[in-house]
């Protein structure tokens, strides 16, 4: 009995339409691409990863609360039904403004009518010796897997020493008192307690020191001071030490040194001290850039020295209407992506562009399983369990993919009442076992 071969899917020919290239598949790039659905344009998203990552939950992957697949979603699947939107797996090396084309690392050349740069940001190490080599950031799935392996392997080695009757002492230093630093330090403390209680480790959680340091005089400086006080109090209840006004001057494989000369032996340094666009595509697009290496853009988010290249999200230095710039946050990325899609269509339809207006929807940070803080646009503050529930709802809303939303919701619900075994797996490979 013969079987007929599976026929290839036939795609419409969009080569005659204006070509919009979107560099980056993060919050900004995905939001921009969605704005072109069903429009008379051909869109190509280019990213070195074939998936979109929900960055705000990477710390939960790192602390074994979620699986990597629960915070990532294939870009092709997101736009699988959209005939005018395609994906190219690759990394842009160079932008040729005159010829309107991008060159990829693999040698490919792709022409564009409009280019939207949404390549995001990376960890800022401020030139501190050893930080980029030995500290562990949290800006990719690979980062979160590496940190998870490090945490779990450290606990396993400590358990061996405890069983042998040796004194156990381990120190993790979290650098940065913003939302990422607060969330990560709280999640590490919870992980240690649960591993000891549920997995039968012989170590005393008090012997695993978690030190959160920041140059600022308080945590979460973007929040009101009372929120900082509340957050610090909750973290201390979890056994986390907090030190302010501390500047890191060097990081080594097993140590960290501060400006006052103190040097600590550490099991690991988690870097949450800020982000920069330096080292991303933005570094090679514009000679004179804005703060943190971000691209200078006009009010419509077009590059200051271009008529067909745009920048959004963490890649762009977007004025807030005053003398400062909007923060590098997911809401800014999403809103700027939507805005640029409309402006590109305006240009293609010979209409004037409009300035970007950001709608502040507030900011949030979670502290632990039952506590979070949120500042609403009105200035009102929500904290405690109410803040935690608000944080859960917002993150579920923005998470891509129904499957991911369902799985994360089940995990979070289970964790609220009890802590399951969870994905506490050491999956060491060439990328994460350093």
List the helices and strands and how they pair.
Layout: E1 19-23, H1 27-34, E2 42-47, E3 51-53, H2 58-62, E4 72-74, H3 75-78, E5 85-89, E6 92-96, E7 101-104, E8 109-111, E9 114-117, E10 122-123, H4 131-134, H5 141-163, E11 170-175, H6 179-199, E12 208-214, H7 225-237, E13 240-244, E14 248-252, E15 255-258, E16 263-265, E17 268-271, E18 275-276, E19 295-296, E20 309-311, E21 316-317, H8 330-348, E22 363-368, E23 371-375, E24 381-383, H9 384-398, H10 402-417
Parallel strand pairs: 1-2, 1-9, 2-5, 9-20, 11-12, 11-17, 12-13, 19-21
Antiparallel strand pairs: 3-4, 6-7, 7-8, 10-18, 14-15, 15-16, 22-23, 23-24
Helix pairs in contact: 1-8
Q: Which range best describes the helical content: under 10%, 10-25%, 25-40%, 40-55%, 55-70% or over 70%?
A: 25-40%
In what range is the share of β-strand residues?
A: 15-25%
Number of individual domains: 3
Low-confidence stretches: 430-434
Number of helices: 10
* Annotated CATH topology of the largest domain: FAD/NAD(P)-binding domain
What radius of gyration results from the CA coordinates? 23 Å
Distance between the termini: 53 Å
Going by CATH, the architecture of the largest domain would be: 3-Layer(bba) Sandwich
Note the main sheet. 5 strands, parallel
Overall residue-averaged pLDDT value: 90
Instruction: Provide the spatial order of strands within the biggest beta sheet.
Output: 5-2-1-9-20
The backbone outline, from C-alpha atoms, is globular
Q: CATH homologous superfamily of the largest domain, by name?
A: FAD/NAD(P)-binding domain
């Amino acid at each position: 009995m013969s079987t007929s071969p599976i026929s290839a899917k036939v795609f419409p020919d969009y080569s005659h339409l204006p070509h919009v290239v979107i560099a980056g598949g993060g919050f900004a790039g995905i939001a921009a691409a969605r704005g072109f659905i069903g429009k008379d344009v051909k869109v190509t998203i280019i990213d070195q990863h074939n998936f979109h990552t929900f960055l705000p939950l990477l710390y939960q992957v790192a602390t074994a609360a979620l699986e990597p697949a629960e915070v990532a979603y294939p870009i092709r699947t997101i736009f699988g039904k959209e005939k005018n939107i395609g994906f190219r797996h690759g990394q842009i090396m160079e932008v040729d403004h005159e010829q309107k084309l991008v060159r990829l690392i693999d040698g490919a050349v792709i022409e564009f009518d409009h280019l939207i740069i949404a390549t995001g940001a990376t960890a800022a190490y401020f030139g501190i010796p050893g930080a980029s080599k030995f500290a562990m950031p949290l800006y990719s799935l690979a980062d979160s897997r590496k940190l998870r392996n490090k945490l779990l392997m450290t606990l396993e080695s400590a358990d061996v020493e405890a069983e042998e009757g040796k004194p156990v002492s381990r120190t993790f230093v979290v650098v940065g008192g913003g939302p990422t630093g607060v969330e990560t330090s709280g999640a590490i403390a919870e992980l240690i307690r649960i591993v000891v209680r549920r997995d039968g480790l012989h170590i005393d959680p008090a012997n695993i020191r978690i030190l959160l340091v920041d140059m600022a005089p308080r945590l979460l400086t973007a929040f009101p001071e009372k929120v900082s006080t509340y957050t610090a109090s909750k973290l201390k209840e979890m056994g986390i030490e907090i030190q302010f006004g501390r500047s890191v001057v060097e990081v080594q494989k097993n140590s960290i040194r501060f400006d006052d000369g103190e040097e600590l032996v550490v099991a690991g340094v988690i870097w949450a001290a800020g982000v920069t666009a330096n080292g991303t595509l933005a570094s090679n697009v514009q000679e004179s850039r804005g703060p943190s290496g971000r691209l200078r853009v006009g009010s419509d988010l077009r590059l200051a020295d271009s008529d067909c290249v745009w920048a959004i999200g963490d890649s762009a230095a977007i004025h807030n209407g005053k003398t400062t710039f909007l923060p590098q946050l997911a809401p800014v990325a999403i809103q700027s992506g939507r805005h640029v899609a409309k402006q590109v269509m305006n240009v293609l339809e010979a209409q004037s562009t409009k300035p970007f207006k950001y709608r502040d929807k507030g900011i949030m940070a979670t502290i632990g399983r039952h506590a979070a803080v949120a500042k609403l646009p009105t200035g009102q503050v929500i904290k405690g369990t109410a803040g935690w529930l608000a944080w859960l709802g917002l993150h579920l809303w923005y998470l891509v993919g129904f499957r991911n939303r369902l799985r994360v919701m089940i995990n979070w619900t289970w964790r609220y009442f009890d802590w399951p075994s969870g994905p506490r797996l050491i999956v060491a490979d060439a990328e994460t076992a350093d």
